[in-house]
C-alpha cells in the first residue's frame, strides 16, 4: 500500500514564533536562517482531531463544523490560498482527503521574499502527480510573483510536471532566465497568459532549440500565448521583440512598459507578425516616435488600448495616424507627450468617437480649444486626466462637463482652475469623482 504525504505549511510560510512550533502545536520542521525548510508529513491517522479521545461523551466528540457535508467543505476550501490549504490538510484524515481534492488544485499561489519557492513547487507538484505519475493534469495556474528566490530550477519543475498550464506569473523574480522560460513555453502548449515583468534577465520568448528544429519552419505558430507582460524587462531589444512576434503570433495583449531599448523598428516586426493585438503599452520607451505610431496604426480597428505615456518623441503627426486608422480605440494614455497639441486632440476627437478614457496630463500645449473639440465629439468619455496641464482653464472644463454627462473621473490636479468651474462640473456630472488640489473644494 502506497503512503501519501502532505507538504508542511512551514513550506509555504516563514515561522511566526519559535522554530518547530506552529499555532501552539509541534511540527516536524527545521530552520535555516530566517526560513523554515520544508518537511513532508504523512496524513493524520485519526478520523477526527488526533488529540481527541474516542471515549468522550457524544456531545463533546465532534465540533459543529464536522456535520458539514463534503461539498460544503470543498466550497469553503476553494477560497483558501495555497498555504492555508496545506494547513487544513493536516487537521484530520477527512480534511486531508478533501484538501487534496484535484478540483482545488487548479491554482498554486505563493508569495514571500524568504520562501524557498523552488522546493515548494517541487514538493507540491510531486504530491499532485501521485495519481498520474510525473504529470499533473489539473494544475492550470501558477502565481509566484514577488518570490525573489525563484530560480530556473523552479520553472523547470513546472515545465516538466504541468503540461496543462495556462497561466504563469513570475513578476519580480529577477533570477529567472531565458532558458527556463523557453522550457515552460515549449512543454506547456496551452500557455496563454505569461507575466515576466521585472525579470531583467528575460530578453525574448521562444521555443527551445530542440523543439524549434522539429517544428521549423512553422514553429512560430505553435506558441499560444495571448497575454504577455514584459514590463521592466530592461534588456529587451528590437531583435528580442522580433523573436517574440515571430513565435507568439496570437498575441492580443502586450505590455512593454519601460523596455527602454526598444525602437520603432521593433514595432514594425510586431505589427507584421501579430495583427491581432488589441492592447499595447510602450510607456516610457523613449526611442519610440511618430514612425512607431505609424506602424501601430496598421493594427487599424483591432486596437482598443494604447499607452504611449512619456514617449517624448511623439507629436501630433503620430496621433493623427492613430486617429485616422484606429477608430475603435477606447483607451489612450498620452501623459507626458509634450509634443501633443490641440490639433492632435482634434483629430483624435473627430475620429475616435468610442473613446472612453483619455490621459493627456503633463501636455503643456493642450488648451481649452482642444477640450472643446473633445467635448463636442467624445460623448462616451468616462475618464479624463488633465493633471499638470498648464494651459487648461475653467472654460474648457465647463464645456466638457456640459457635454460629457457620463464622465466618472476627472483629474485636474496641479491645474489652475477656479472653484466655480469645479462646482459646475459637479452639478452637471453628478457621478464624477474629481481629483484636484484646490483646498477650498470638497
From TrEMBL:
Residues 62-108 form the F-box domain. The keyword Cytoplasm applies. Residues 18-31 have a biased composition (Low complexity). Keywords: Cytoplasm, Cytoskeleton, Leucine-rich repeat, Repeat, Ubl conjugation pathway. Residues 1-31, 42-61 are annotated as: Disordered. GO terms for cellular component: centrosome; SCF ubiquitin ligase complex. It is found in: Cytoplasm, Cytoskeleton, Microtubule organizing center, Centrosome. Residues 43-54 have a biased composition (Polar residues). GO terms for biological process: SCF-dependent proteasomal ubiquitin-dependent protein catabolic process. SMART domains: FBOX, LRR_CC. Pathway: Protein modification; protein ubiquitination. Belongs to the FBXL7 family. This is F-box/LRR-repeat protein 7. It comes from Labeo rohita (Indian major carp).
